[in-house]
Structure formats: structure tokens, C-alpha cells
Amino acid sequence: MLKIHQKYSLRNNHTFNTDIVSDLFTEPASPEELVFALRHTSDKGLNRLLIGEGSNLLFTSSFHGLVIHPILTGIKSVDESGSEILVKAGAGVNWDDFVASCVKNNWFGVENLSLIPGSVGAAPVQNIGAYGVEVKDIIDYVEVLDTSSMNFSMMPNHACEFGYRDSIFKHGDPDRYIVTAVVFRLKKRFEPVLDYGNIKKVFISKKRQDANALRETIIGIRQSKLPDPMETGNAGSFFKNPVVDQSVFQQIEASWENVPHFPAGKDHIKIPAAWLIEHAGWKGKREGDVGTWPHQPLVIVNYGGASGQEIFGFSEKIRQSINETFGIYLEREVTIVS
Ligand SMILES: Cc1cc2nc3c(=O)[nH]c(=O)nc-3n(C[C@H](O)[C@H](O)[C@H](O)COP(=O)(O)OP(=O)(O)OC[C@H]3O[C@@H](n4cnc5c(N)ncnc54)[C@H](O)[C@@H]3O)c2cc1C
User: For 226, which DSSP code?
Assistant: First the structure.
């Protein structure tokens, strides 16, 4: 029988580490239990919130309804062709445990996504990405429960409408699909992706140049730049890197020197949000227990006692300041739960 907890503290279920309580909380461990939890919310007219490991969420108040944390586990190879292997992982598997398992089994292609916090089930939701690889590059299909029909189905890669930190699971009706498992198309041969930042330099300095060394390289770089949520509450990059019209970029370039930028489709330019935040004077800034991380201003941190409201208020001040300074309204990467 699926246990439903009452007045449940979510402090250990999200990485901003604020003290938030949910009226109800449950952890379905099978597809049947997941269906039971959903039926429970519709029968009782309850709000529901689906969470993984809470590493991309900011709660601004207690949650009135049922928080569902699926713990569907398992990693196994499901098919094999000449040079590729299909590997299935349950939505509740920790993302980095999945990466470690792939590296151990010589299933290649996922090394650059080492140490991203969170669950396998949430990985396709915002199409996680780092160091030149996005998860959409290695997803074959996603298994979902469609809550509009209560049917389980398979969504091939193209149906997921992946974009930059975006997918059909985030835009449109974000509550419709629940990811139950993800099937990845991985390689049997190690083909490292090294052309991002200083990965290549660190990687070739390692004793052996194998997948494990690449994983170690990525972990080392990430640990030197990003706060560990176990020590300092945060949800990674708070904002997306904005993509602007060429004309907007030219206006910024006329007033600022050496603006970093990357082409992003016809007449569009991507500007690193970290650069904008730093040049608007927010790098390392702290107000009470909220601040930007000194090594990476795109990350907003809770130094201990900040509330969700305070973190949200601080983030809105940054947004307003970037708008006033550069005429760009930053879009959040973190999901706000209010
Ligand atoms: C220190 C740090 C570094 C980070 N670095 C990166 C990075 O390099 N690249 C990157 O892309 N992200 C990064 N992130 C963000 C975060 O790790 C990812 O967004 C991750 O995929 C969130 O997983 P989660 O299980 O914690 O999801 P949650 O935060 O619990 O949920 C995120 C969203 O997904 C939905 N969701 C969760 N599970 C499911 C499911 N099974 N089915 C349908 N919807 C679901 C939730 O409803 C919510 O809307 C970082 C975060 C931290 C704290």
C-alpha cells in the first residue's frame, strides 16, 4: 500500500534547502503506485506537484496538495546494434549514478554530463546540458504516463520538441506527461567531445585518455566553479543565457567592450547571462543570506537562513537590473513553485 505522508518537510527534497512543508507527500515505486497517487489527487481534488531531486526548483511558500516523488529505479541495456547500445534507466535513478554506471560499462557519450544533480526523469524536461553536450543528443525515446488518458506510451526523440533548456515536458501543458523512464542511444566506442572551454587541456594532461578520465575532468572543473548543494543551497544556473536580435546585440556592443557572444540561428546572438550579471555589478553580491556565487554569478545561493521569498526577491532585483542596464529581460531556468 502506497504510503502518503502528512505535513511533510521538503527540506531534504530540494537543493535550495529552505524549510518548506507539503500538506502531503508520497514516493511511488512502481507504475501502478504512480497511477494510484494520481487517482488519489483527482478523486480528492488535490493540487499535485511532481518532483525529482528538487535541484531545479524554488519553493516560495508551503505546498498545499500532494507532492509526488517517483522512485522508479533500474538501469539495463535493452537493445544493441553494430556500434550502438540502447540503455534504459528509470525516472527515479540519480542522474550521476546513471553516468557513472555508463562509464563503468563502456557505454559512451554521456561523460560530459557528469555530476549534474537530479534524476534521470527530469533530464529530458529541461534538456540538461553541459560542456558541449545536451541530453537530447543521446535520448532515443522517453517513456511517459500521459495523465490526460492515463495511458503509458513511448515518445520518440523528435516528439519531445527539445530546445535550449526546454522540451514538450516544460512548455505547453507541463503537467500532462510524467516521465517514467528514458532510453538512451549510446556508443560502444569512446569518442570524446572536447571542444568546450578548457576540457581538452585538462583531459590530455591525465595519465590515460579514456572515458573515466573525461568524467574526472568534468567533475574537477564543475567542483572548482559550482557550489555543492549539500553545503550551500542552490539550483545551478538561475537564468538562461538570453538569445537576442542582432540589433539588440549591436546596441550593447556600442557601449561595452569585449561582449562575449555566440551565433544562435539567423540574425540571433546568445550572450552569457553570467557576463551580464557580473557587468551589472551583481557578482559575489550578498543581501542577508542570499547572494550570487563568487565563482559563478549565474548561480544564486542560500547561505543558510534565506527563505524562498527572499531568494525569489533577490532574483527579481537582478532581472530588473539587467533590464535597466542592457535592455534584456532574463528568462528563468529554475522553476518557481508558489
Ligand atoms: C549545483 C547545480 C548544478 C547544475 N548544473 C546544471 C547543468 O550543468 N546543466 C543543466 O542543464 N542543469 C543543471 N542544473 C539543474 C538541475 O540539475 C537539472 O535541471 C536537473 O535535471 C533537475 O533534476 P531534478 O530531478 O532535481 O528535477 P526537479 O528539480 O525535482 O524538477 C525539475 C522539473 O522537472 C519536473 N519533473 C521532475 N521529474 C519529472 C518526471 N519524472 N516527469 C516529468 N516531469 C518531471 C518537475 O515537475 C519540475 O518542473 C544544476 C543544478 C545544481 C543544483
Answer: S
Distance (Å, rounded) from C-alpha 218 to C-alpha 221? 5
Is 4-68 a domain of CATH 3.30.43.10? yes
Q: How far is the CA of 54 from the centre of ligand 1 (A)?
A: 7
User: Given this model, what pLDDT does residue 284 score?
Assistant: 94
- pLDDT digit string (tens) for 207-231? 999 999 999 999 999 999 999 999 9
Ligand 1 touching residue 116 (CB < 6 A)? yes
Q: Would you state the cell numbers that stand for residue 230, as one nine-digit string?
A: 549539500
- For 75-225, the fitting CATH number among 3.30.465.10, 3.30.365.10, 3.40.630.30, 3.40.190.10 is 3.30.465.10
Q: Are 285 and 251 in contact (CB under 8 A)?
A: no
What distance in angstroms lies between residue 122's CA and the mean position of ligand 1's atoms? 5
CA of 55 to the centre of ligand 1 (A): 5
The closest of 235, 258, 238 to 319, measured between CA atoms, is 238
Q: What is the pLDDT of residues 175-197, one digit of tens each?
A: 899 999 999 999 999 999 999 98
Q: What is the pTM (predicted TM-score) of this model? A: 0.96
Cβ of 56 below 6 Å from ligand 1: yes
Cα–Cα distance, 86 to 138 (Å, whole number): 10
**Active site residues per annotation:** 165, 237, 333
pLDDT tens per residue across span 84-106: 999 999 999 999 999 999 999 99
Pick the closest to residue 90 from 52, 116, 128 (CA basis).
52
Using DSSP's 3-state secondary structure scheme, residue 249 falls into: helix
